[in-house]
Write a structure and sequence with these properties.
Layout lengths: L1 H24 L8 H23 L6 H27 L5 H20 L1
Helix pairs in contact: 1-2, 1-4, 2-3, 3-4
Length: 115
């Protein structure tokens, strides 16, 4: 179970790194890539699995923190979905939507580490 938890944490961090890294890379010409959407789903799914594993074990889970992180992660996934859909259609992605994806992911990382 320790290996599974470690693997899920690794994948969770990789997803967050892809979202924020792509956001920083495209900062001058903000857009949302399909990779950011897939990375948001990766982070969302692995986060839910990590909470489930901790609930099954003896660890205490801060449910308020998990709820906040889940809501922010859902907002990132929805914004990334809308942005990547516009990108695939060849439409311009608004600057606010592109910054929402990266900024909310960064806020979610801050909640995880500072709360």
């Amino acid at each position: 179970m320790t290996f599974l938890t470690g693997l899920l944490v690794l994948l969770h961090l990789v997803g967050a790194a892809i979202i924020v890294g792509t956001w920083i890379y495209t900062l001058r010409r903000p857009t949302v890539s399909p990779g950011q959407f897939h990375a948001s789903l990766l982070s969302l799914v692995t986060g839910v699995l990590l909470v489930g594993i901790h609930e099954m074990g003896d660890g205490d889970v801060n449910h308020a923190k998990v709820a906040v992180k889940l809501l922010v992660a859902l907002a990132v996934a929805v914004a990334a979905f809308l942005g990547q859909r516009r990108t695939r259609r060849g439409e311009t992605v608004s600057t606010g939507l592109a910054h929402a994806v990266g900024g909310l992911a960064l806020i979610n990382m801050a909640v995880a580490t500072l709360w």
